[in-house]
Structure formats: C-alpha cells, structure tokens
Write a sequence for this structure.
C-alpha cells in the first residue's frame, strides 16, 4: 500500500493495534498499522511503552526496513518517513507520526492523538523532534543473489507475507543449519570410528574367550586323566598290599616262632 492510499483509507478513523481494542487512538497505533500495511513487517513493541521507544530502543525488526536519521536543521524528511519526538512532549511518552510533506521549518504529518484521536493531517514545527526513521534506500540492491532469486520466485508465485518472511528467515538461518549439519557429520564419523573400535575389541574378546575355553577344556581333561591314573594306581597298590598281607599270613603259619619274629622285624623295617 502506498502512503497516499494509507492516508485515504484511514483519515477520520480512530485506530488501535493490533486491533481497535488495543491502544485505540494512540499515535503509535496508527504508525504500527502503517508499518504493517505499507512495509509488510510486524511492528514490534517499543520496549518502553512509549512512542519515543521507537527511537531510543529501535526495536527489531525495524532495522531490517528503516535506518535512523537524527534531526538536522538542514535536512527535510521524505514522504513516508516516521517522525519521532522526544519525551518533552506527550507527557513524557514522546510522539510519533508519518511525514507527508514540508520544508526545513515546518511540515505536515499523518497523526493520531495530537489535537484529536482520529487519524488526520497535522501541521508541526521541528521543535523536540529527535529524528526520523527513513526506509532503507534501494533495498533490493542490498539483497544477496540468493535472496533476489527467492524474492523473484515468491513474487512470481504470489506468495503472501508469511511465506516471504519464512523463506528469508530460513535463508538467514542457513549458516547455523549448515554448521549444525557439519557438527552432526563430525559426530557421526567419530561415532562410526568408536563403533568399529568396539567391534574389533569384541572380536578379539570372543577369540580370546574361545582360546581360554579350549585351554580350560584341555586342562580339565588332563586333570581327569591324572585322577583316573591315580585311582588306578591306588587300586593296584591296594591289590598288591592285600596279596602281600595274605601271603605273609600263609607263610607265618608255617614258620617257627623264631622265624616268625624275624619276619615281623623285616616287615617293620620295610615300613
């Protein structure tokens, strides 16, 4: 919407923002409506609950569309510039309006809440004017090639403001997204290396476990064989002992007392 179309549309009306139930008839409300409808961005809160806050705080996203120009006796604002007064007027809240025409000594602006709450054309001097917000010059020329291509595509496809802002927001966030992807890629490579290391350790551990198991089985078999040999030796020893004792007993029955005593002595020595 052009400035003149905006003036024609709202002259004589009492407007609030974002609806007529909000700050109805306030000077900042008509300016916010102007920013919304003529520049396509959502006007931010002033940050100080005052018209002067648009100068002192210059809240985002105003800086994406406007630049600040301090009041200078040699300068004349351009039609459509947003004029801002300091806190010496408006009961400490300042004042804000839309420049329409003028000279270095006086000008006409589109106001609310200045000699009337309805939107109207109002004559002013520059006393207490701190400066104005002027649209950035040749904004299209400041766009990058990628931004220009996106703007052209969206324009050709008649995209609404939401889609335009979303596209440019995504483009602005692209470096962050790219960095995040690079970080994730680096983390992924590190994790793959760690997984490979753990898999190698697992294979080695399984190999060692099988080797230990095999050695344990072999040792167990040797122990069992030795135990069997020992049991066999003990059985054989017991057999020979029994046979020996039987033979001794048989022999003792046929010996004289003297021979028997001698035999027992020999047996004791053998023990």
């Amino acid at each position: 919407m052009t400035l003149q179309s905006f003036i024609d549309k709202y002259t004589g009306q009492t407007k609030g923002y974002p609806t007529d139930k909000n700050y109805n008839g306030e000077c900042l409300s008509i300016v916010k409506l102007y920013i919304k409808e003529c520049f396509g961005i959502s006007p931010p809160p002033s940050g100080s609950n005052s018209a002067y806050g648009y100068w002192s705080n210059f809240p985002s996203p105003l800086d994406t569309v406007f630049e600040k120009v301090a009041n200078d006796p040699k300068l004349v604002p351009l039609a459509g510039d947003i004029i801002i007064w300091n806190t010496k007027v408006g009961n400490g809240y300042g004042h804000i309006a839309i420049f329409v025409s003028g000279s270095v000594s006086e000008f006409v602006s589109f106001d609310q809440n200045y000699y009337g709450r309805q939107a109207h054309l109002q004559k002013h001097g520059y006393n207490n004017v701190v400066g104005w917000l002027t649209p950035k010059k040749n904004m299209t020329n400041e766009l990058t090639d990628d931004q220009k291509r996106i703007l052209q595509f969206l324009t050709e496809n008649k995209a609404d403001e939401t889609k335009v802002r979303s596209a440019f927001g995504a483009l602005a966030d692209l470096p962050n997204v790219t960095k995040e992807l690079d970080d994730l890629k680096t983390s992924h490579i590190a994790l793959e290396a760690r997984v490979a290391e753990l898999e190698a350790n697992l294979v080695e551990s399984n190999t060692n476990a099988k080797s230990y198991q095999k050695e344990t089985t072999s040792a167990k078999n040797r122990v069992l064989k030795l135990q069997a040999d020992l049991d066999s030796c003990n059985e054989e020893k017991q057999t020979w002992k029994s046979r020996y004792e039987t033979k001794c007993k048989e022999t003792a029955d046929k010996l004289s007392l003297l021979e028997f005593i001698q035999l027992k002595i020999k047996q004791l020595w053998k023990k």
Q: What stands out?
A: Residues 174-254 form the longest helix (81 residues). Helices lie at 3-10, 27-39, 53-56, 145-156, 161-172, 174-254, 257-270.
